[in-house]
Amino acid sequence: MEETQKKAPPGAYAGILLAAALWGIIGLWNRRLMAGGFSPTDIVVVRNFGGMVLLALIFAVKDRSVFRVRWEHLKYFFGTGVISVVLFTVCYFSCQKVCSLAVASILLYTAPSFVVLLSAVLWKEPVTKRKLLALLLTLVGCALVCGVFSGGLTVTLGGILLGLGAGFFYALYSIFGRYALAYYGSMTVTVWTFLFAGPASLVLVPGSKTLGPALSQPGMWLTAAGLVVFSTVLPYIFYTKGLSRVEPGKASIMASLEPVVAALAGILAFGEPVNAVTIIGIICVLVGVVILR
Questions:
Q1: Is the pLDDT of residue 2 over 60?
Q2: Could you count the other beta carbons within 10 Å of the beta carbon of residue 284?
Q3: Global pTM exceeds 0.85
C-alpha cells in the first residue's frame, strides 16, 4: 500500500476542514425536513440514496471510468458504504432513543480515537504527543459543545455500547477509505461508497410511512436536494480527497470541527443560546486542529 505523504499540501487540510464545516451545517436542512414530517431515519435514506443517485448521474455523463473497479476491491467499498456510513447511522439513532442526545453525540466523536489507534496498529503511524494533545483537546471540546457536562443526562449500558459502536463504525470510513485510495482516486471511492450505502439504507434503515407525503410538500424537494448536495455528497468528496494526502488519524481529528460549526450554525441561524462552556469547547477544538496543522 502507498504511504500517505509526510507533509500534506495545505489544500488537503482545507478540504477536510471544509468537509467538516459542510457536515456541521446539516442541521439547517434537517430541522426544516423534520418540521415538514420527515423522521430522522427518513433523512438518512434521503441522504444516502439521494447521494447515490446524484453521483451516479453526474459520473455517468462526466467520467464513467469511476465505475470500473476490480471485484476483489469491492470489499473496501462495502466497508466505507455499508459498514461505516450505514451502520454508524443505525447505531447513532438507536443510541439517541435510549440516551440523551448529548451522550450520543460525544460517543460518536470517539471516532478519532479509534482511527488513531487503528492507524497505529495497521500502518504503524506514530502516536505523537502533539497528536494525543490534539485528540484530548478536540474530545473535551466536543463534550463541552455537545453539553455533556450540563447535567440531566440519560445514560444506559446499551446506549453506551451503541454510541461507541457509532463512533467505531464512523471511524472505519477513514480506515477502509485509505485501503481503497491505495488503488483508486478519491472520486471513485466516493461514488462506490454511495453505490453501496444507498441500497443498504433502504434495507437496513427503518423508514417511515411519512416519507412520501413529506416529500410532496412544497419546498421539501429543494431542501432535500440541499441536504444531499451540500451536507452529503460535497463533504464526502472533500474529506475523501483530503484523506488521500493526510494521515487518517489527523484527518479524523480535524473533522472534529463539525460540532463546532453545528453549534455556530445553531446560534446564528436559530438564535440558540451560547454560554461560556460552549465558547470554551469551541476554543478547545480549534486549538486542537491548529496543533495538528
A1: no
A2: 22
A3: yes
